[in-house]
Amino acid sequence: MVQNGGCTLIKMICLPLLVRIHPEGQVAQQEFFPFGFPNSVLVHDCLSMQLATPAWAHQICNSHLLRELKAMMEAHPEVNWPKQLTRLIKDALALYKEGSSPTEVTKIEDRLTKLLNQKMGNAAGKIPAMWKGLNKHRDKIFLFLKYPDKNIPPENNAAERAIRNVKVKIKVSGQFKSGDGAKDYATIRSVVDTKRKHKQNVHDELVRIASTPLN
């Protein structure tokens, strides 16, 4: 989020019945969720700030991985590793939709182990970085298959959809003139998206909130 020419990281927290947007990423977590999410699984793009957030478990967004792998395949079509990992992720997602058995999950994990055991440290482009990162966080790739009873989503598309309006705002207006303005917008956007999740009339709810006296 741009403020007077400076760039601020947007923090988007999207829960089943709550959306919270804040123009200062780490501040949002400390202010609204100081203890993290001890009873929840965080689904994210594997950024350092996201990985540092306390949670019951972490799931790497598989859609994000597929986008990264697609770019690698286009840039380096001669390397088979991104193609193999793409097939594996798509197979895992298909298994997630169809319903998986412990035996099938084990087969997926075995294929993942074989891929990550390949030596890709000297491969072209961004492939080594992904290979190293996934080796470090391999337990977060297919967590959604290991705990089918917890309904863990394999991607964070809900958060991507929720932040789309913020991206459009930034693209159209270019910037906020102050940090307070950015925070006010993020708060209003959070309320609007949360009310929609509750299937409430956004206009009526905003009028009700604006009409409520401050104590």
Automatic annotation (TrEMBL):
Pfam family, one: DDE_Tnp_IS66
Domain Transposase IS66 central: residue ranges: 40-183
InterPro entries registered for this protein in UniProt: Transposase-related, Transposase_IS66_central
Signal sequence annotation: none
Name of the protein in its database record: Transposase
